[in-house]
Amino acid sequence: MHELSITKSIVDQVQARMGDAQIRRMQVEIGKLSGIVPDSVQFCFETVVVGTTLEGAVLEVVEPFGSAHCHDCGADFPTDEVLPLCRCGSADIQVLGGRELRIREVEVVECARPADAHP
Amino acid sequence: MCATCGCSPLTELVDPEQYGGHGHGHGHGVDGHEHGHEHDHGVPVPRTVTLEEAVLAKNDELAVDNRVWLAERGILALNVMSSPGSGKTTLLERTIRDLGLDVPVSVIEGDQETPLDADRIKSTGAPVIQINTGSGCHLDAPMVGRALTTLDPPQGSVVFIENVGNLVCPALFDLGEAGRVVIMSVTEGADKPLKYPHMFRTADLMLVNKVDLLPYVDFDVDACVAAARRASPDVEVISVSATRGDGLADWYTWLREHLG
């Protein structure tokens, strides 16, 4: 199950970028054709974040479709299949996109009080 | 969380532009408590930080490092992948013995447990490193980088990276290889390239192994090749039997051509 190491990578990368900031929401993009199962990432996330600055954070997953172009009939259509077939029956399809695997953004909550303010 | 008043981070979302950075008095009177102090904070400020960072960026960077390291030494590294039991180790044993001293070969063996495959390769005389991934289901670029440093293969040699037997996870991890060799055996279903398209989509060469068993199994080689070419239109295909020797000359020619 590669989702476990993928999820660890996500958490490690966010910690490396955000330091000690407490994360309360993060949004990742997992394309429909990426070979990653979002539900598995959600499942692993709850375990992987324990004891980290992401503990308790909400994980939002956005799942972009791929876009397919049929070389035979010229049709363009969205697809969630790695090897799609065109409605015209052709398998000569070029697929673009849908393989995204990216951390889009995180939301941190910061107290605006300066670090050197009186206690 | 603010150490002074314990403003919870779990407050309602507010616009950071509206609240961030300006000084004002503590405004908690509305919910019934006063602090009696003034400082430069108010509502905890949620801030959205755009990262737009590829999740496998670290692996991919290390894979590039491996690729450069290998290219500098003129080493051909091949990522060999298949289901468990397709004959990866048998093919490598035979290949090492047949190529002999003509082409120096080293092997990085990936398995969840045991040094059994490394022991088989070692018996051929080729240098080998076993990586046991434990619960891991694939090799990644840092594992291979460490193994390459330890192996220190000679200039102009071949390094076979025998990945964990698995048609799913290894497909997603670039190791820095020059090419991907996927092995299918005729005891598997000919439709496997359609069922595991991520693996076959990135294959440079498909070896159809165990063809000596074709008289005994219901396996349509042409259908398998057609399926593989749907996933990867330019994939090369060689039918072999690692035990009987069919097709191995073509496989060695392919290797020599890619070694350059």
Total strands of chain B: the figure is 8
Number of helices of chain B: 9
**Strand count, sense and closure of the main sheet of chain A?**
3 strands, mixed
What is the arithmetic mean of pLDDT of chain B? 86
Largest sheet of chain B: 7 strands, parallel
> Residue share in helices of chain B?
25-40%
Radius of gyration of chain A: 19 Å
Kindly describe this structure:
The complex is a heterodimer of chains A (119) and B (260). Chain A is of the alpha+beta class. Chain A is 24% helix and 30% strand. In chain A, the strands form two sheets. A three-stranded mixed β-sheet of chain A has the order 2-1-6, covered by helices on one side. A three-stranded antiparallel β-sheet of chain A has the order 4-3-5, with no helix packed on it. In chain A, α1 (2-18) packs across α2. Chain A is elongated and about 55 Å long. Chain B is α/β, with parallel strands linked by helices. Chain B has a seven-stranded parallel β-sheet with strand order 4-3-5-2-6-7-8, with helices on both faces. In chain B, α2 runs parallel beside α5. Chain B starts with 15 loop residues before the first helix and ends with a helix. Residues 1-39 of chain B have low confidence and may be disordered. The A-B interface holds A 1-2, 4-6, 9-10, 12-14, 17-18, 22, 24, 28, 35-36, 82-83, 91, 101-114, 117-119 and B 1-4, 7, 9-11, 19-22, 37, 39-59, 135-138, 140, 168-169, 171-173, 194, 197-198, 201, 230-231.
